[in-house]
Design goal:
Blueprint: E1 5-10, H1 25-37, E2 42-44, E3 48-55, E4 58-65, H2 73-83, E5 90-96, E6 104-108, H3 116-125, E7 131-136, H4 146-150, H5 156-178, H6 181-188
Parallel strand pairs: 1-4, 1-5, 5-7
Antiparallel strand pairs: 2-3, 3-4, 6-7
Helix pairs in contact: 1-5, 2-3, 5-6
């Protein structure tokens, strides 16, 4: 039955030249989750690469849109319609400038805060009531343009801890699929020591 199915979406830009960028942390988390499911991504007619399987005991479709971040709403809306997933059962994993590097925040709804991927999703879904796993990438140093910051690779110092943060974000997705938002927030809003 579709009502027990989750759609988990990672936001990023397709192609190897973007793979290590801060803006692609959503894709990094989804790649780790696919490994946990034990499956490889396959092309889907909805302009996304998908993995179907069980995650945290729940049926889930993991998806990485093939469009650029700023146009990711169309592919996600197409997957929502194809799999008949209600918006409250969509989890979106994305980078967040206004949260310090390595910090996670989970929530339902809210604005896009200047994030063009979220703006595209909200517009295409006709709702902002999807779950969000916000992965902190921090503000750019000095006067660096935020657009340049998100389209750069993580620094050498950040990369040393990146695997831990991606793993923790994947754990947060699983927590959302297996229990209420508030329970997951109680675990993941406490920054690890």
């Amino acid at each position: 039955m579709p009502e027990d199915l989750w759609l988990v979406v990672g936001l990023g830009n397709p192609g190897p030249s973007y793979a290590g960028h801060r803006h692609n942390v959503g894709f990094m988390v989804l790649d780790l989750l696919a490994g946990r499911v034990g499956a490889r991504y396959k092309a889907h007619k909805g302009r996304a690469d998908v993995v179907e399987g069980r995650l945290a005991g729940a049926r889930a479709v993991l998806a990485k849109p093939k469009s650029y971040m700023n146009a990711s709403g169309g592919p996600v809306a197409g997957l929502r319609d194809y799999f008949s997933v209600p918006v409250p059962r969509i989890v979106v994993v994305h980078d967040e400038l206004d949260i310090p590097y390595g910090t996670l925040r989970l929530k339902t709804g809210g604005g896009d805060n200047g994030h063009n991927g979220l703006r595209s999703l909200t517009s295409s879904l006709g709702s902002r009531d999807y779950l969000r796993v916000r992965v902190g990438i921090g503000r750019p140093p000095g006067r660096q343009d935020p657009a340049d910051h998100v389209l750069r690779d993580f620094s050498a110092a950040e990369r040393k801890e990146l695997g831990f943060h991606v793993d923790r974000a994947a754990d947060a997705v699983e927590a959302l699929l297996s229990g209420p938002l508030e329970a997951a927030q109680n675990v993941f809003h406490v920054d690890p020591a």
